[in-house]
Amino acid sequence: MSIGDARNGLVLSVRQVTVAGGGDRPALCEVSFDLPAGAVLGVAGEPGSGRSTLTRVLTGDHVEHTGTVTLRPRDDGPEIVLRADTPRPSRAERLAAASPRVLDAADPVLTPRQRHADVLVIDDAPASSAAALARLRDRYGFAIVVTCTDPAALRGVADEVAVLYGGRIVEHGRAEDVWAGPHHPHTIDLFAGARSGATPASEPGCPYRARCAYRMGVCDDTDPALDLVTVGDGGTTMTACLQYDRDVPDPALLAASGRVVVPQG
Ligand code: SF4
Fold first, then answer.
1. Mind telling me which PANTHER family this protein's record contains (predicted)?
2. 243 CA distance to ligand 1 centroid (A)?
3. Domains (ranges, CATH) in the chain?
4. pTM for the model
5. Atom number of ligand 1 nearest to Cα 186
6. Does the beta carbon of 147 lie inside 6 Å of ligand 1?
7. Which ligand 1 atom is nearest residue 241's CA?
8. Angle at CA 56, nearest 5°, toward 54 and 59?
């Protein structure tokens, strides 16, 4: 199931969530996504990318944030808007955290609270956890937000993949599209196993430019926003990279991806 095809039945909506960081960049910056019942969202990123901050916002670790996190129970119960001071027990009835260690077992065992949640959150899943995650989803019907370093770790179970870098989503699309042709250079690097954990370049300019093999002159001055890119079957994916700006296309990269730039009006 694609998240994009299932806007009805959302159990979790995250909108523009931002968490202050220790330096000049936020730990999490304007992160948004929707999660329908039973869907699996994989969040990939290096340590320090913001993936653990995101799971802490969701699971109630008293992380102050702006933006909204809304739970919509599967049983049509009242909507819950999560805040940093929302008590962990009240949110845990709908949204539960699980240790990645549960995925070590071929047949994972959950607590009653985890089994009855609408959303299960697992931070830092091991590389070979797709089968265990699929078993949990199929058995209990909850949606899952699972983070990992390597997006390939979730092949076969994630419906959509979001890639974090420097606290921001730099790519977000259907998992099958990300497997077939990642757009953002950081996603390409993660698939290639090129990880450094280096801190993002400071503003102005693209935060990824110091590590980017596709860097152009404009990347030193312009901080790209998440933008829609069409994929081969007419669907869309989102990426924050100036390679996909219609004014500065890279024909070789676009030809390799088999995708085209969406005209911006
Ligand atoms: S905007 Fe430029 S530096 Fe940033 S990821 Fe894209 S090509 Fe690389």
1. ATPASE AAA-TYPE CORE DOMAIN-CONTAINING PROTEIN, OLIGOPEPTIDE TRANSPORT ATP-BINDING PROTEIN APPD
2. 7
3. 3-196 (3.40.50.300)
4. 0.86
5. 5
6. no
7. 6
8. 110
Q: Would you call the peptide bond into 204 cis, given omega within 30 degrees of 0 as the criterion?
A: yes
Whole-angstrom distance, CA of residue 113 vs CA of residue 96: 7
Which tokens in the block code for residue 34? 């929707």
pLDDT along the chain (265 residues), means of 10: 53 91 85 91 93 90 85 82 72 84 86 92 90 92 92 88 94 88 90 74 86 91 86 77 63 45 32
Q: What are phi and psi of 230, to 5 degrees?
A: -80, 150
Atom of ligand 1 nearest to the CA of 207: 4
185 lines ligand 1 (CB under 6 A): yes
Q: Is 212 in the pocket of ligand 1 (CB under 6 A)?
A: yes
Give the residue, by CA position, lying nearest to ligand 1 atom 6: 241
Residues with Cβ < 8 Å from 124, sequence gap 6 or more? 51, 52, 100, 147, 148, 149
Spatial neighbors of 209 by CB under 8 A, at least 6 apart, are 201, 215, 219, 220
Q: Read off the tokens for 259.
A: 């995708």
Which residue spans within the chain are E strands per DSSP? 10-19, 28-36, 40-44, 66-71, 80-82, 95-98, 119-122, 143-148, 160-165, 168-174, 227-230, 236-239, 260-261
Beta carbon of 188 within 6 Å of any ligand 1 atom: no
Closest CA to 170 of 58, 45, 20, 16: 45
Number of DSSP helices (H) and strands (E) in the chain, helices first: 7, 13
Query: Are 209 and 143 contacting, i.e. CB atoms less than 8 angstroms apart?
Result: no
Q: Which atom of ligand 1 is nearest to the CA of 212?
A: 8
